[in-house]
Amino acid sequence: MESAGPETLTAIEQKVCKDTLAKYMGSARVWITHLDFPHPSRQIDRKVIAQLKRDFDCEGCIKEKPDHRIPAIIEDTVLQAGLQRLAISAETFRTTSRDNPPQLHLGSGVKLECLHGQHRAVAAKEHLVPSLRWWIVDLYNSDLEKDTKQTLREGYSYSAKYTSGEIFRYIRLCNYDNDTLGVQRWRGRLSDSQNQFLTRLLKRGMLVSALDSVLHIQGLWRTFYLGSLDVFLNLKCDDEIACYIKSMKSILTHILGNDMTTMMNTDPLTIEDIQSRAPAFSKSDFEFIQKEMHSERLFAAVTDPVQRADITQRLLTTEEPISSLYTLLKDIRYLKQPAAILITLLPKSQKPSLRQRFYFHFTRVESSHPTIEVEQNVSSYTIIPNSSHLDAFNISYQQLWLCAYRVWKHPNAYGRLQLATLAHRLGFSSTEIERKLREDPEQGIIEQCVLEVLNILRPNEKFAFDANQARELIASFHAYLGKILQTPAKSTPPLITVAGSGEPLARRCGHSSADTQDLENLFLDKIHASLLEYRRGGDEISSFYVKRSRHRAFFGAVNLAANQQGQSTRSVPAEAPVEQRVIVVAPSAIGISSSASAAEGQDSNSNESSQVQGANQVVQSARRVVRFKERNAAIQEVPYERAAVNEQARMYANQGKKLSVKGSGHFIWQDCFDILHRTKGSTVHVFTTVQPVNGKRQYNQDMPERLQPVRKEAFDFEMEDSEEEL
User: Ranked by mean pLDDT, which of 142-151, 339-348, 431-440 comes out on top?
Assistant: First the structure.
């Protein structure tokens, strides 16, 4: 849409001004019960209403000021009936009422269409005594021009000023309506710096299209600040941002049942309260959502009980942290430093996005390349067969980002070499990568370390350090270092839930003190593992789960589980997926009924639609599993494997809990798998009752015999079928 010139805009403004004056019928005091807002420019914001009430307390309810009045449309018949009660003519009313508005009595059930001012009307209705619940209304004839109505509707004095995000939304809506005047009028509300950011943003087609896709979710826009778009625009990660917005839209659309009216009426307060929450995995989030939906504070515009129940159910079973435009602006900053390291692998380029630059230097674009390498740790890889449903570039590109996450906090020469080595192995080629591969930072670092050791051991002695004479020692240590680094550390599946408070809301988006945690788990196969493969350690989400969700929001989900023929792609055998029956159990046995949970991210590489189960869902399948139960409620399932079972048992033991099988005493966690194997059982009971001895907990030889753990040799019986749930 072309911008209108100054002369055209001036002509339109003059036309609006003339229409406003011509259609003005007069001003009157009208009872608030007669005021209706059928087409509000924004949804009710309780924070604004609370502030208006405080203003009323401090300054009084100033209704008389002209810029505090509410513009409204009135039909001629309604106005004439009111004027007859006042015994004045329409002309007298029009000329005298502006300075001294009379009380206009309207018939029962009569409503005036108000163009603006809903917040002050609600605040006055809730704050004032009944005899004072009126407001001064400027009345206009029903044949107002469209541009005039819109101008009056956009007024904001004595109410909430529009944020830059809301202004951007109206600019885009005006653009779709080919409303040149509206675009110019809304841009006039922005500061110079905000207008500069907006001009740059409008040149980025992918970003604009992505943002336009969520214009209908009105509650998102209050915290989308144009003044905070520096990293958003400078990072040149347009593909990743668009993917994040697509994921956000998918989650919110699912929660709201794809109902356009509900999405249009979503209020900012609700979005602010649910963002970053993952109710299916977090007990505190679950209880918060349940409470606030019951009180009708969340999604206040939804009044139908059935619809509210459906939204509540979908909210409570949402697994991924709910994203918003606010979390996007925070999370994009998490990519800033890793992106700065990745750029060092590439020559300068005019290509618009970082993803396109890396694609240009990827040498394995052809699908004929038979395999794809996936890094499992810094010293080992697994090979997966390439197929048409896998995007080799996307898999390799994501691995570079995950490596950058791991090294950016300590961007030394070794970290840069590690990243360059990975890029070369995955099929990226550039002169910068080749130059970094020729560097050997370890040699210089070891020499410096030897020198520092001498300074520490002989701080008061002078000596001349000759690296050439120490070369044999340095080479020996260098070889030893390489040997131990090639021995991968023992790895266990990461925890997605933990005991205690878990990851607080404040640390679920953007940078946090947890950025240096979980680095050993930031590898592709762990980020894109099925939820069933992770360990559960409590009722709140872990820092790893936050990082996992954020990465998948920016880059989409990747299905590494099977190739086209459904065969395992892992280097070790894995069981093929089986059809599952799901029982939904709320956190810590808080019961709700559940529908299918939200889609688990966007998989740009596969059309596979996989059902992902929540943290509080007990999954029964053909694969044998061990179930841990507390107070007769299933709290965790793990594969029937010694390492997995004993690790889960150890976690509960560390929490001060005891373990038993039905009909027996408790046992130590190290014997858990052996006891299940002896009894042919698959259920472990977890309990916290501890019998005190002289007011203290005592263990081993200090404990009475009745409190001693039972040895595993005592478990030489088999569990009855009725004791195990199939």
Answer: 339-348
Are 623 and 575 spatial neighbours (Cβ–Cβ below 8 Å)? yes
State which H helix or E strand residue 153 sits in.
helix 146-153
Please name every residue paired with 382 in a beta bridge, in sequence order, or none if there are none.
Answer: 374
CB 29 within 8 A of CB 136: yes
> How would you class 10 by CB atoms within 10 Å of its CB: exposed for 0-12, middle for 13-18, buried for 19 or more?
exposed
CB atoms within 10 A of CB 358: 22
DSSP string, 360-414: HTBS--STT--EEEEEEETTEEEEEE--TTS-HHHHHHHHHHHHHHHHTTS--HH
Nearby residues of 662 by Cβ (< 8 Å), 6 or more positions away: 681, 683, 685, 719, 723
Taking only the tens place, the pLDDT of each residue in 402-428 is 999 999 877 777 788 889 999 999 999
| Distance of alpha carbon 3 from alpha carbon 650, whole angstroms | 68
pLDDT at 61: 66
pLDDT at 179: 84
CA distance linking residue 238 with residue 383, whole number of Å: 30
pLDDT of residue 399 exceeding 60, the answer is: yes
CB of 31 closer than 8 Å to CB of 97: no
**Any residues with CB less than 8 A from the CB of 642 and at least 6 apart, and which?**
673
Asked which of 83-87, 386-390, 492-496, 596-600 is least confident by mean pLDDT, the reply is 596-600
- Which is nearest to 678 in space by CA: 688, 699, 664? 664
CA angle 134, 99, 161 (to 5 degrees): 60
Judged against a pLDDT cut of 70, whether residue 64 lies above it is answered with no
> Which amino acid would we find at residue 61?
C
What pLDDT is attached to residue 486? 60
Gap between the Cα atoms of 329 and 345, Å rounded: 26
Chain position carrying tokens 């396109």: 356
